[in-house]
């Protein structure tokens, strides 16, 4: 199974910083995914710092293979308590799960997470761990087996308490009932909603029940979706040994998922070996980049190094709405979970043309940077094959 995870956040109205903090990390060699959502006390910069510190420390403990209950207890004993309100300066929900569906969750202070099987809420048993230092503070520990198409929903109390006291339709706030109704309606209409889409819907729905749709608290919604992976292939750069062009063209052609090509030389190799024409529409608005081309059986064909470099820039800056060739390449990449890259090792002398911008790097380095940002920021898997 592939674990699709995403978090959507909205800041409290008139605040410059979000007082919630979400952090996640994949450990590919262990087929594990770690995530922490923390809610700092209050709002603004102070809450943001407390939540960031809590989530980061807890994630680093899990990363070092400290058992999740132990890591959470250490965190609980480390967090100071507000002298005025008598509660901890940050609450948290931590997740440690494997691709075979083994899930461990620990919560302190955050709303209980939801386990959805299809559109049905599934009960999950938990154990309570009482803090030795602070008897009024308790951890909830869950351990269970997730199945294909299960979803986990985590949120801060900015979701469940949205509209509290201000919206007659939700006199006790949006609550888990309102949250569950919204999720159920969404999944009934669109059963394959991605985690990013559903998280965004939850966050916006919570904001909409607030006065004038302005959040009165920081809102965070995290969704974890266990599903079959979506795989895609990107071929860029000619193979090192020209006599293997036909071999790699066949591998490219036989790949079952969506395919893209970056590079005119690469596209010409595939066209020649598979006897399929490359066509470029005569009129396209493509900005400063060469326009996209098309070929039967290929989802997208773009120019090479310029487009890859611009795509990297878009990924780093979260620019998803661009319609040029790089924007289309980003859209192609982000619609997949596992991106396989066939990276040709033959040197293209055009990359050393002094007329090109000096920030343009050779293809291999750009692809490595794209892989790094996809893995760290977008939780994708990237497999690079040098050919």
Oligomer: single chain
Q: Number of helical runs?
A: 10
**Structural class of the helices, strands and pairings?**
alpha+beta
Rg calculated over all Cα atoms: 24 Å
Number of domains: 2
Please give the share of residues in helix. Answer: 25-40%
CATH superfamily of the largest domain: PPM-type phosphatase domain
SS strand fraction: 25-35%
Ends apart, CA distance between termini: 28 Å
Which series of helices and strands comes N to C? EEEHHEEEEEEEHHHEEHEHEEHHEHE
Low-pLDDT ranges: none
CATH architecture annotation of the largest domain: 4-Layer Sandwich
- Estimate the global geometry from the Cα principal axes: elongated
What's the number of extended β-strand segments?
Answer: 17
Structural summary, described in words:
By secondary structure, the chain is of the alpha+beta class. It has two domains: about 230 residues, 4-Layer Sandwich (Phosphatase 2c, domain 1), CATH 3.60.40; about 160 residues, no CATH class. About 30% of the residues lie in helices and about 25% in strands. The chain contains ten helices and 17 strands. The strands form three sheets. The protein has a six-stranded antiparallel sheet, with helices on one face. A six-stranded mixed sheet has the order 14-15-13-12-16-17, with helices on both faces. Strands 1-11-10-6-7 form a five-stranded antiparallel sheet. A hairpin with a 2-residue loop joins strand 6 and strand 7. It is elongated, with a radius of gyration of 24 Å.
């Amino acid at each position: 199974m592939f674990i699709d995870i995403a978090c959507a956040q909205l800041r409290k109205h008139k605040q410059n910083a979000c007082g919630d903090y979400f952090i996640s990390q994949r450990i590919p060699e262990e087929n594990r995914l770690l995530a922490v959502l923390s809610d700092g006390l209050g709002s603004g910069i102070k809450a943001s710092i407390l939540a960031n510190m809590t989530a980061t420390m807890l994630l680093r403990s899990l990363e070092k293979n400290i058992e999740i209950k132990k890591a959470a207890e250490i965190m609980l004993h480390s967090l100071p308590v507000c002298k005025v309100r008598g509660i901890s300066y940050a609450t948290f929900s931590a997740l440690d799960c494997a691709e075979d569906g083994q899930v461990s969750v620990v919560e302190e202070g955050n709303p209980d997470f939801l386990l959805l099987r299809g559109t049905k809420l599934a009960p999950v048993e938990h154990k309570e761990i009482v803090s030795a230092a602070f008897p009024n503070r308790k951890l909830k520990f869950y351990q269970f087996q997730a199945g294909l198409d299960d979803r986990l929903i985590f949120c801060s109390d900015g979701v469940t308490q949205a509209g509290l006291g201000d919206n007659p339709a939700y006199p006790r706030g949006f609550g888990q009932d309102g949250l569950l109704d919204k999720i159920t309606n969404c999944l009934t209409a669109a059963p394959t909603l991605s985690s990013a889409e559903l998280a965004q819907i939850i966050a916006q729905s919570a904001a909409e029940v607030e006065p004038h749709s302005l959040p009165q608290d920081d809102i965070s919604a995290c969704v974890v979706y266990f599903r079959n992976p979506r795989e895609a292939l990107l071929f860029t750069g000619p193979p090192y040994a020209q006599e293997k062009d036909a071999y790699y063209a066949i591998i490219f052609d036989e790949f079952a998922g969506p395919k893209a090509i970056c590079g005119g030389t690469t596209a010409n190799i595939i066209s020649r070996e598979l006897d399929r024409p490359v066509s470029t529409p005569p009129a396209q608005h493509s900005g400063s980049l060469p326009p996209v081309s098309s070929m039967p059986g290929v989802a997208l064909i773009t120019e090479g190094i310029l487009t890859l470099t611009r795509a990297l820039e878009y990924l780093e800056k979260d620019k998803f709405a661009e319609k040029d060739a790089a924007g289309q390449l980003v859209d192609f990449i982000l619609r997949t979970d596992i991106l396989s890259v066939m990276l040709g090792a033959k040197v293209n002398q055009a990359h050393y043309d002094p007329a090109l911008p000096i920030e343009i790097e050779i293809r291999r380095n750009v692809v490595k940077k794209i892989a790094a940002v996809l893995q760290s920021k977008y939780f994708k898997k990237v497999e690079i094959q040098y050919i």
